[in-house]
């Protein structure tokens, strides 16, 4: 009973925050995404473009091949007193797709929940890791001076705010020092309020909100998970390169690396892509994103990202209490690093094993220790099976 009461209170809080949701729904009747029913999750995660305003990330003419490995794998691993297979895990945790690549070849590819290989699925915060990758591309292009460049050089509307003197690197580490509340159960939290209204038609709504926040810590000193700042990074990149994030992602990743299908990116109230959320692509294209990072940011024989960028971005830059954090990448205590999104989205990359694992899900809750623990056990079972293959 307590669980259902808690979920009901959470739903009420989130519903109250709905007008302040940063993405723009096509219909005012669209429920806030964090309160969707299982049926709407299954359909909506595949068809975000039907429910929200989006921009398209165009693919190119060529597709990066993902050939089948000589032998595929399954898993059989102990967890909570029983033996689990991949099918067991997928059924128990509402998983729509699992893809495992080793040496760029497919060891496992599974679909469920009515999903087909051509279906996209939303990423939630996995998009953050793509946004940080576009920062690297913009540095390589000379559009961003470097990681020590100050944020206000690219978002001048932030001058005179808590972001004075904050660097691009500090934003990517989620350590600006600006005060921020990410509590989704609090309808008055920053995450429930940021970007929810156009206060100044000349200023992006997330920028308008963020420039009013006070400084709480010295820049670079303290990790504080902050979705608003990942949206800021998206604005910073598009300002620096002079084009939309979607067009830049198409030019730097989708076309040169060879994605199989156009991606989509949900926009905010001003029509700008949310740097911190809600890009959608196919299961295999998530795998290609992982492989692009594993390949060191090279595509079509060209170096897209600065040499050494992928190593630095996916190394521990700041302590966060759970393994460390890079540039919008989570460092895994078990080895490797991860792009992570709520409701069970993830790209795990283990360079020493030349391994990429993608999981897309529709968990009944945004997150939880039980859900995360079960997913970690599944990841590690896959890693062991891949090593033994």
What is the topological layout?
Elements lengths: L1 H15 L21 H7 L3 H4 L2 E4 L19 E3 L2 E3 L1 H7 L2 E8 L2 E7 L8 E3 L3 H15 L27 H5 L32 H6 L16 H15 L3 H13 L5 E4 L12 E4 H12 L3 E2 L2 E2 L5 H5 L16 E2 L5 E5 L3 E6 L4 E7 L7 H20 L1
Antiparallel strand pairs: 1-7, 2-3, 4-5, 4-14, 6-8, 7-8, 9-10, 11-12, 12-13, 13-14
Helix pairs in contact: 5-8, 5-9
Q: What is Rg?
A: 20 Å
Helix content percent band: 25-40%
Spatial separation of the terminal alpha carbons? 45 Å
What is the C-level CATH assignment of the largest domain? Alpha Beta
CATH architecture of the largest domain: 3-Layer(aba) Sandwich
Please report the total strand number as a whole number. 14
Number of domains: 2
Structure, explained:
The chain is an alpha+beta fold. It folds into two domains: 36-127 and 243-389, 3-Layer(aba) Sandwich (Beta-lactamase), CATH 3.40.710.10; 144-241, Up-down Bundle (Methane Monooxygenase Hydroxylase, Chain G, domain 1), CATH 1.20.58. The chain has helices at 2-16, 38-44, 48-51, 86-92, 126-140, 168-172, 205-210, 227-241, 245-257, 283-294, 309-313, 369-388, and strands at residues 54-57, 77-79, 82-84, 95-102, 105-111, 120-122, 263-266, 279-282, 298-299, 302-303, 330-331, 337-341, 345-350, 355-361. Helix 5 (126-140) packs parallel to helix 8. The longest helix is centred in the C-terminal third of the chain and has 20 residues, at 369-388. The protein is globular, with a radius of gyration of 20 Å. The termini are far apart. The relative contact order is 0.18. The model is unreliable at 1-20 (pLDDT under 50).
């Amino acid at each position: 009973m307590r669980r259902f009461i808690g979920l009901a209170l959470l739903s009420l809080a989130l519903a109250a925050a709905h007008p302040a949701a940063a993405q723009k729904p096509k219909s005012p009747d669209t429920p806030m995404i964090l309160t969707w029913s299982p049926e709407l999750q299954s359909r909506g995660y595949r068809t975000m473009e039907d429910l929200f305003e989006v921009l398209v990330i165009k693919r190119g003419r060529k597709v990066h091949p993902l050939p089948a490995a000589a032998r595929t794998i399954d898993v059989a691993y102990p967890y909570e007193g029983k033996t689990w297979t991949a099918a067991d895990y997928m059924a128990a945790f509402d998983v729509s797709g699992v893809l495992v690549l080793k040496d760029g070849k497919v060891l496992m590819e599974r679909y469920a929940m009515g999903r087909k290989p051509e279906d996209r699925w939303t990423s939630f915060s996995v998009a953050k890791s793509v946004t940080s990758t576009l920062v690297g591309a913009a540095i390589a292009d000379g559009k961003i001076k470097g990681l020590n460049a100050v944020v206000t050089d690219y978002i001048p509307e932030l001058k005179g705010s808590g972001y004075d003197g904050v660097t691009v690197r500090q934003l990517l580490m989620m350590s600006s020092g600006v005060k921020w509340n990410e509590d989704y159960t609090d309808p008055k939290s920053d995450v429930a309020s940021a970007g929810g209204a156009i206060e100044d038609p000349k200023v992006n709504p997330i920028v308008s909100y963020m420039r009013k926040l006070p400084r709480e810590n010295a820049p670079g000193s303290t990790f504080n998970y902050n979705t608003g700042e990942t949206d800021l990074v998206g604005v910073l990149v598009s300002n620096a390169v002079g084009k939309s994030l979607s067009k830049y992602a198409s030019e730097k990743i989708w076309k040169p690396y060879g994605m199989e299908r156009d991606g989509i990116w949900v926009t905010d109230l001003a029509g700008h892509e949310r740097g911190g959320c809600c890009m959608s692509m196919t299961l295999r294209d998530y795998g290609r994103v992982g492989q692009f990072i594993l390949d060191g940011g090279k595509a079509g024989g060209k170096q897209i990202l600065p040499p050494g960028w992928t190593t630095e971005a996916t190394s521990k830059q700041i302590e966060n209490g759970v393994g460390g954090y890079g540039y919008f990448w989570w460092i895994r205590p078990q080895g490797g690093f991860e792009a992570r999104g709520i409701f069970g989205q993830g790209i795990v990359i283990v360079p020493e094993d030349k391994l990429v694992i993608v999981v897309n899900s529709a968990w009944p809750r945004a997150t939880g220790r039980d859900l995360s623990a079960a997913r970690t056990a599944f990841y590690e079972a896959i890693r062991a099976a891949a090593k033994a293959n």
